[in-house]
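Feature request disguised as a bug report, sorry. It would help if multi-protein outputs had a clear separator. Right now it looks like this:
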Amino acid sequence: MKTNRLEAFSDGVFAILITIMVLEFHIPQEASLEALLPLIPVFLSYLMSFIMLGIYWNNHHHLLQASKHVNGAVLWANVHLLFWLSLVPFVTGWMGEHNFAPVPVGVYGVVMCFAGFAYYLLSRALVALHGGESTLAKSLGRDWKGLASLAMYIAAIALSFVNSWISCAVYVAVLVMWIIPDRRLEKGLVKQPSTE
C-alpha cells in the first residue's frame, strides 16, 4: 500500500486536534486587557501543545516521505500514535485551567511519553517493513533523540510532584530538541536513489 491515504488521514487528525485545542479559550465577559489575564495559563499550555503537535506533524511528514509503502502493522502503529495525540487537547486544557497544578502537569507528561513511544514504534514498524539497509533505516539509525525524549518525559512526570514548573521546563526542552525537523530524514531523502 502507498503512504498517501495514511498521510491524508493523519493530516486531517492533526488539523482537528489543533482546532479543538483553541476552543479551550473562553471569551472574557469584559472588554478589557485585565480580562485576558486569567487566560495566560491556558494560552501558555496551548502554545506548548500547539508547537508539540506541529513538531509531530512535521516529523510524521518527513517519516512518511522517506517511506515507500505501508502495511497493516504500520497502519495500526499510526493509529496508536494518533490515539495518544488525540488526548493532547484534553490534557492541555486541564493543565491550563488549573494553572499548571502537579497532577495535570504529570498527566500531560504521561500522554507525551506514550505519544513519543508510539512515534518510536511507528518508526520501527516502517524500518522493519523497508529493511535495515533502506534509506529510512540508515537515516533514523538507533534514534537516540527519540529515546532521550522518552527519558526526559519520564523524569518530568516524576518532577511534576516536586515542582510542576520544572516539569514544564523539561517539556519545553524536548520541544526545543525537536523544533527543527528531523535532519536525518531530510538528508536521507536528498541522498535517496531513485530506484529504491
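(second protein starts here, but nothing in the output says so)
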Amino acid sequence: MFNDIPRRQLLLHFFLLIATLVSTFLAGGLAFGVTLILILGAHEMGHYLMTRKWGVSATLPYFIPAPPPFIAGTFGAFIKMRSPIPNRRVLLEIGAAGPIAGFVVCIPALIIGLTLSEIKEPQFQLGFSFGSSITLSFLTKMILGVSPENADIVLHPIAFAGWIGLFITALNLLPIGQLDGGHIIYALFEKNYQIISKITFIILIPLGYFSWHGWFIWAAIVAVFGFRHPPLIDESTPLTNKDKKIGLISIAIFVVTFIPAPIIF
C-alpha cells in the first residue's frame, strides 16, 4: 500500500508520529496520548484511504507535536493533497471520511473514559471548566447519571482525549474554506457555498465575544485564507443519493459535536 512512498518520506511521517505520541504523553499521560493519536489517526486515515480509493494523490498524515504547556500536546494532524479533486462526489467523500472516522473512534473512547471518570468536588478551583457538546452531555447522562453542566466531573485521560476529539471534529466541520466542512458544503450546495461560509464567519464574531475568545482566532484565520474554494476538474458531476446522505450525516455530526463555549471562565 505504501510502496510508492519514498523511504525518507515514510521516516518523516514516522518521526512526527512518535514525536506527537511523546508530546501528548507529556501533556496527559499514556492513556491520553494513545487515545488522542488514535482519534487523530482515524480522522486523517479516513481522508487518506478515500484519496486512494478515488486515485487522488495525497500524503500520509503529518502529526504535529506541541510543547507540553499546550493542553493537548499536539496541534493536530493533516494530509496534503498533491493533485486536484476530480468532481463533487470525490470532494464530498474525501471531506466527510475524516470527521466520520474520527467521530466513530471518539464514541468508544468517551464511553470507556466516562466509565472511569469520577463525580466529586475538586480539591482546588482551576478558574475555568470545559464546555459540553450534545454528544458529551448525552453520554455523561447515560453513563454517570448526571449532566456535565450540573456536576463536577473529573474526566479520566481517555475521556479528556475523547472531548478533544469531539472538539477537533467540530472545528474541522465548520463550513468554511479548506476545512472539511467547507469541502462538504461546497459539494452539497455549490451555489450557496459563499453565503453559508460568510454567515458562519459572521457568527464566529459574537461567539468570540460572548462564549469563547478563541473563535476570534478562527475568524482571523478565515479572513486570512479567504472563502474561495479551489475549483474542481469537473463541476458538473451530480451527487448520488448515497453521497447526499453522507453529507447530511456529516452535518449531523457537526451539530452534536459543536461546543459553543469550549472553555468557560
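Even a blank line would do. Unrelated, but nice: The chain has a mean pLDDT of 90.
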